[in-house]
Amino acid sequence: MKKFIAAGVFAALMAGVAPATAATQIDFWHAFSGRLGELLDEQVSKFNASQSDYVVVATSKGNYSETLNAGIAAFRAGEQPDILQVFEVGTATMMAAKGAIKPVYEVMAESGLPFDQSAYLAAVTGYYTTTDGEMLSLPYNSSTPVLYVNKDALTAAGLDPEMDLSTWDKVGTALDALKASGSKCPMTTAWQSWVHLENLSAYHNVPFATKDNGFAGLDTELALNGDVQVKHIETFGQWAKDGKFIYSGRRNEGGATFRAGECGLFTESSAGYAGVKNEATFDFAIRPLPYWSEVDGAPQNTIIGGASLWVMEGQTPEEYKGVAAFFNFLSSSDIQAKWHQDTGYLPITMAAYEATKASGFYDENPGTDIAIIQMTGKAPTANSKGLRLGSFDQIRGIIDEELEGVWNGSKTAKEALDSAAVRGDELLRRFEQANR
Amino acid sequence: MEKRVVFDNRWLPYLLVAPQLLVTFVFFFWPAGQAIYQSAFIPDPFGLKTQFVGFGNFEYLFGNRFYRESFFTTAVFSVLVTVSAMCFALWLAVLADRVIKGSGTYRTLLIWPYAVAPAIAGVLWLFMFNPFTGIVAWSLSQFGYDWNHNLDGGQAMALVVAASAWKQISYNFLFFLAGLQAIPKSVIEAAAIDGASFARRFWTIIFPLLSPTTFFLLVVNVIYAFFDTFGVIHTITQGGPQQSTTILVYKVFADGFVGQDLGSSAAQSVVLLVLVGILTVVQFRFIERRVHY
């Protein structure tokens, strides 16, 4: 009994000491686990320690799809969190849900906190802004595809490890040599649709879908079966047939093979850097994503993948103030710079990039600035701002299926992409109907 | 005097079955009713607005070639899983039943896989068959056989069938073993004295006497193949390559939880409901007649 009283007194004292009990709670649902989850928790506890008005409570809700579904289910039940992390392909779903989300620019304006949209990287925020340039969600973790090179494999194939790999033609020459030297996996990729169709289109300034890639309206149609895309997939289909391009799966299954040193080249997100650096026992380099030199205007800029933070509708003004304060904190340059350096994700502000540069990080970790240079080299066009397509997660599944048909030789590139467009359009029409 | 097995109180019987009715209503009729209701609408994911489309969702579904093909895929998958899981389990049960020394150990080991969650079973098989790093894929390549279930639909189907059946074998094994042990020894011994071989004893005595167990397992296994194999497919193939392992249940998930198309998902649930209803009627009307209790 004494113990209970002691505990009670202690608790009472603690409550008196920490005014945290009076602070407004901000719920933040995210999709991170493992190392990324730890880094996120670190940011949250830093924020909580930095002030006493708000307490952010971060909860992991599974993978991206599961987190989105949890958010949707919670909204239907009226129990939605203040902040929901949604992956980039869920952007159109969130955007169409007027009445379920509160645009970030509104939250920031109402809070009265300083908010300068031009401080953010246009190429990153472009994905999450309206056609008028107003920010709907706060970019959180963004990455872009780059080319990872196994220098030892190139040397073994009698190639100069510093050789020019800026265009796909030059990559083709390297693959010939790798194949001839007996490599079992000259090249592989992660996230084939994201790298070899979505980014390919933006990088060559051709549309992936009509209506400015869906930014200008729900009545968008896929345009991924254009000449550039067909040529690219055709080339890869031929490489797959010749054993120069090895298909390892829809997600980042190829990463394990590359990190084990079995592949020469690997196209993957810039956020894969930490993993490669940790595990690779060979000399590697990061290069910009190759392009087709005969296409006018290439290379344009690549687009991002990753996730952004959405603010849900139906919370108290006090909570929105807290959300704004938290977003402000997340956008501060030291937090961003640390996040960028720890994870390989892009910094979302120019200031964070400059801070990282000044710290000498890029000199110590060559290649980590490739992604940001590739994204910011040119001002984004309507074709390279991003994609905003409904049911996009499922459309990616369709694209994956059709590409698999090309890799196993049962379909030509043209047939597969035409079919992907027809099937994807069906889903886009369903989405348009549901959000009319 | 006539003896009637009825309750005197009019309300007592209703009260006694009420809990069961309540459970059935809350967990079956209500969700099923909701599915039927929702199948007539196209809602947006957040439930902010919804449109009545009548049978539009069904028209959309049956107009889709991939949905129609999914019926065939489901049939192939279910038959393969059910047949292989039951045959292997029966074979193992007969063997384990004859073991005298260390039978407990055998039985325990054979029951183990049942404790593995479907998703984990999927990952285990995926590791073994990974085209690049899997030990089985590597062994096959030593014999000159190229394994890549990421691209070959037949191999993908074989892999998900094997993983799903492997998980169910333990369950079937338990029931078959119990069934075997319930058969009176005297009948079998009498046949043995008459000089009947083991095969003959098995087919003329054991198998017919085991038929209630077999029938029960058939029903359970078909349901398992239809609904519980989702985790295995999700971890191994995600329905691919080119929809070759997309069974009906997987498509419900893909449309509902990946595509957030709740109208289509609800319509598919209704189709499944009808399909399983028909299957159950068929099983009980036509197959159960051959069962000797």
Automatic annotation (TrEMBL), chain A:
A GO term from the CC aspect: periplasmic space
Keyword Transmembrane: no
Signal peptide as annotated in the record: 1-22
UniProt keyword terms in alphabetical order: Periplasm, Signal, Sugar transport, Transport
Pfam families: SBP_bac_8
Keyword Transport included in the entry's annotation: yes
Location in or out of the cell: Periplasm
Domain of life: Bacteria
Protein family (similarity comment): Belongs to the bacterial solute-binding protein 1 family.
Subunit relationships: The complex is composed of two ATP-binding proteins (UgpC), two transmembrane proteins (UgpA and UgpE) and a solute-binding protein (UgpB).
Task performed by this protein: Part of the ABC transporter complex UgpBAEC involved in sn-glycerol-3-phosphate (G3P) import. Binds G3P.
Protein name: sn-glycerol-3-phosphate-binding periplasmic protein UgpB
TrEMBL record, chain B:
Pfam families, alphabetized: BPD_transp_1 (PF00528)
Domain ABC transmembrane type-1, chain residue ranges per copy: 71-283
Subcellular location: Cell inner membrane; Cell membrane
Parts of the chain that traverse the membrane: 12-30, 71-96, 108-128, 205-227, 266-287
Keyword Aminoacyl-tRNA synthetase: no
Alphabetic keyword roster: Cell inner membrane, Cell membrane, Membrane, Sugar transport, Transmembrane, Transmembrane helix, Transport
Purpose: Part of the ABC transporter complex UgpBAEC involved in sn-glycerol-3-phosphate (G3P) import. Probably responsible for the translocation of the substrate across the membrane.
UniProt protein name: sn-glycerol-3-phosphate transport system permease protein UgpA
